[in-house]
Write the structure tokens for this entry.
Amino acid sequence: MTLPTPSQTVGPFFHIGLPYEDGPRLIPDDTRGAIRLSGRVFDGEGEVVDDALVEIWQANAGGRYDHPEDTREEIPLAEGFRGFGRCATGGEGRYEFVTVKPGPVPHPEGVMQAPHIEVAVFARGLLKHVVTRIYFPDEQEANDADPVLSSVEPDQRPRLVAVENDGALRFDIRLQGDGETPFFDV
Amino acid sequence: MEVTNRVRGYRRENADPPYLHPDYKATQIRAPAQPLIPLAHTLSEVTGPVYGDRPVGELDNDLTRQHGGEPIGERMILHGRVLDGDGRAVRGTLVEVWQANSAGRYRHARELHPAPLDPNFDGGGRTLTDDEGRYRFTTIKPGAYPWGNHPNAWRAAHIHISLFGPAFVTRLVTQMYFPGDPLFFQDPIFHSVPDPRDRERMVCGFDLDNTVEEWALAYKFDIVLRGRDATPTE
């Protein structure tokens, strides 16, 4: 057994190597059901974090991951959709992705998970990225039954559900302090 | 719908620094204050962007050939293998790097260090590992730079490295340091990893065998991603 290489902060200069033009756009232009998913990242003093990198990973609209370990071939892959997005935050601490709402995916306990998007946030001052999940506001029943969301304290669950806002979805990320986003140990 | 129950998760052993390391000031207002919530791996965590969406060009692993002229500095080859926690090669995985130039300056709008920019050096590169998990970059050795974290603070010279591995939970962003750097003792980012044996795994080795005579020095750096559980959970 070999021990892993430790994590170190992405630092303030990752723009030299990581963001790329199509990073925030997960879908081809003509995709039906496109959604805008955006939000802002805040630090423990309530200031915007304008040097963060947000990455997302998700299943397609049918609930299939484009990955060899998702062997459910009865759910087709979507052409031009890999499920990965990357966006650096700008001056207002804002990120924005254009994607589709993922379908439900299975949980090892034999139930389905509510539709969700995996999120990783990297920044100067984060020695390791933080991981959270975005759930959807129009899925209350599925959210209530979701084993992962149910592992979060009830009063904090709403912080993992995006807010519908003028046809777009908003999901703010608070790294520390009041309204801190629940982060997962994955 | 058939439900795929069995998921083989990834092991929890890790050498990562704590989020809060007060000597590194920015952690004080950015580290989560609440404990992380344990999450047993599901299909969402054991899948991941195997190499992201970013196309890799033939010369993307040569940071010395991105302009008409050659960058100033000590030319070096950086190579090694990407391995999983059981020592097996991680094939076809994207390795992304970025770094300061030989004077210790980043080509970045927020860079404050008044060291010269090099018109022939941008400092970013990427490559895919081969069938034996090997990667290789040609670059110049980055310089140290001041960073204002504490009086007379200097970052030990380093190259930033980003990797995906096979799953969302194998994602790793780290920094590779150089052997014997005299600045280690006062670098709180390096020392955020508490165990010196773990810190040692962020330091590359000088590799005489892979130097190219009359042309470049070489450093070897193997990167180990998380290992996998032996059996699936149900």
Summary: The domain at 47-224 of chain B is CATH 2.60.130.10 (Protocatechuate 3,4-Dioxygenase, subunit A). Chain B has one domain: 47-224. DSSP finds three helices and twelve strands in chain B. The longest helix of chain B spans residues 196-200.
